[in-house]
Amino acid sequence: QSVLTQPPSVSAAPGQKVTISCSGSSSNIGNNYVSWYQQLPGTAPKLLIYENNKRPSGIPDRFSGSKSGTSATLGITGLQTGDEADYYCGTWDSSLSVWVFGGGTKLTVL
Amino acid sequence: EVQLVESGGGLVKPGGSLRLSCAASGFTFSSYSMNWVRQAPGKGLEWVSSISSSSSYIYYADSVKGRFTISRDNAKNSLYLQMNSLRAEDTAVYYCAKLDTAMVTWGQGTLVTVSS
């Protein structure tokens, strides 16, 4: 069982919008930056969002991140079939002194 | 171009040992903390260990504490993971990742299989 809780799966049609939630506690999300990672099938994870809502160079603005209290959300607009992947949230847990990931959310673009 | 290349994976028997390496290039390796993250077949990401830029701070997941040792050689731009007393549940793809406020760059991974 992961320290951070994500829905196992989400789905939406091409062109639509989807959000993926990540719930934690005051020792992790509540007091540390959240990052989001995309893992396309058979590939290594890639950073999508860092410091809660910032996008690395090359990540389209269809991807957005937000944080409120002990929860974070990844938003993806204008869904494309190429967005089908597993998405993970991650952050540092200050109480446990460990890095924690959510269990991952599989996005299906119908 | 920032690049991380893992090596050293393979098939090992339960109770055996393996040493993973991660060669870094394209950035000032000695300025960044580094991580090992693993992914068992069909499972999610699991953080394994972190080491600060000067090796002053080292952290481990409970699942590997006492069995795995992370280290680095800044002169060689290399990160290592010594894995001892390996178990079947350690079977996974092992990734090294450069850490800033997030895991900004990942290697392609190396597969470790623990089986008799």
Describe the 3D structure.
The complex is a heterodimer of chains A (110) and B (116). Helix content of chain A is 0%, strand content 45%. Chain A has 110 residues and is mainly β. Chain A has a single domain (9-109), classed as Immunoglobulins (Immunoglobulin-like, Sandwich). By secondary structure, chain B is mostly beta strands. In chain B, strands 2, 4, 5, 6, 9, 10 and 11 form a seven-stranded mixed sheet that branches. In chain B, strands 1-3-8-7 form a four-stranded antiparallel sheet, with no helix packed on it. Chain B has strands at 3-7, 10-12, 18-25, 33-39, 45-51, 58-60, 68-73, 78-83, 92-99, 103-106, 110-114. Chain B is 0% helix and 53% strand. The interface between A and B is medium-sized, with 23 and 21 residues. Chain A: Pfam families: V-set (PF07686).
Low-confidence stretches of chain A: none
Structural class of chain A: mainly beta
H-E string of chain B: EEEEEEEEEEE
The oligomeric status of these chains comes to: heterodimer
Largest sheet of chain B: 7 strands, mixed
CATH topology of chain A: Immunoglobulin-like
Radius of gyration of chain B: 13 Å
Biggest sheet details of chain A: 6 strands, mixed
Q: What is the end-to-end distance of chain A?
A: 28 Å
**What is the residue-mean pLDDT of chain B, rounded to a whole number?**
97
Number of DSSP helices of chain B?
A: 0
Count structural domains of chain A: 1
- First-residue to last-residue Cα separation of chain B: 40 Å
- Secondary structural class of chain B: mainly beta
CATH class of chain A: Mainly Beta
Q: Report the CATH architecture of chain A.
A: Sandwich
- Binned strand content of chain B: over 45%
Helical proportion of chain B?
under 10%
